[in-house]
Design a protein that fits this description.
Elements: H1 10-15, H2 23-33, H3 37-62, H4 66-82, H5 90-98, H6 103-108
């Protein structure tokens, strides 16, 4: 399991042309960062689940749900924590979010 700190590779990620938040992108990033496959796949899947949950909460929020607003805010908070430079795999998370089809997710990244 990877235990060292990953260097901030945000500028390099910005220059990459990735196919999106799919398995092809995952494979590119996993090999680029030399992340252990299991750990990086779990992280990538976690990001995709956050996006999915955020889409549902955002829809509730747009329909006037106070609970949807609170849920959406909590998801956005977690996403922001994951992309902060001190976060161990922030560049990978940012790449996943940038590949999203949801505009609100891309704005976070």
């Amino acid at each position: 399991m990877f235990s060292g700190k990953m260097p901030d590779l945000s500028e390099k990620i910005d220059q990459l042309e990735l196919p999106g938040n799919d398995l092809a992108s995952f494979s590119i990033l996993a090999s680029l960062f030399c992340l252990p496959r299991i750990e990086s796949r779990c992280l990538w899947n976690h990001c995709l689940r956050l996006i999915e949950k955020g889409d549902k909460a955002f829809e509730k929020y747009q329909n006037g749900s106070a609970a949807g607003k609170k849920e959406f805010e909590m998801i956005v908070l977690e996403m922001n924590e994951l992309i902060q430079p001190p976060s161990e795999f922030s560049a990978t998370v940012r790449a996943c979010f940038r590949g999203s089809s949801s505009k609100w997710v891309r704005e976070i990244a």
